[in-house]
Amino acid sequence: MHSKTNLVGIVDGFLRETKGEVKCFGISDAISTKINKILNGITDYERPDGYTIAENTVYIVEHFEFDSTPASKKGSASRIENGRINRTFDEAISKELAGLPEGFGQHESYINDSYDVSHSAGDYTKNAISNANNHYGKISEYVENLEQSNILMSSHQKRVGFFIEDKTLLGISIFNAIKKTLSASNFR
Q1: What is the tens place of the pLDDT at every residue in 120-141?
Q2: Is the domain of 178 the same as that of 141?
Q3: Could you tell me if 95 and 133 lie in one domain?
Q4: What SS3 string covers 130-180?
């Protein structure tokens, strides 16, 4: 089963930025090494987004992202706005290129648009918790899917991890400003 998420591509991009190693703070070197081994060995899948088999354990990896903008069933305001801007850009470029003669060389186009969404610490916390709970609630479905595909066998141990992306503009700065509101007690 192929993943819509392309978790391998996301993780590869992340690992390239970190030169192949995720920096893990506040945990032992042994656990940090294990996390890097898991991330470097992910296979794409669909529900969960990926898995790694190491020794006698199947590591189930699910990916989600969140930000600090208001969210609805359609997604975060930031994601919706990015989609709108990308569609506007693609339409404008298509129209520009449609009028050019075949084989025409380089061409420059300028598009003026604005990105107008509100950000708040409350939405940041709400979105992080909501997305975490949503994916956490699907663990039994992920396990069942891997069992039905004969990837996860009764002889395997299983572990679940989440690859979470903070898509907030300047996310780490906002996170540091409100991290006191995020605690393990906010999750199920």
Answers
A1: 888 888 998 999 999 999 999 9
A2: yes
A3: no
A4: HHHHHHHCCHHHHHHHHHHCCCCCCCCEEEEEEEEEECCCCHHHHHHHHHH
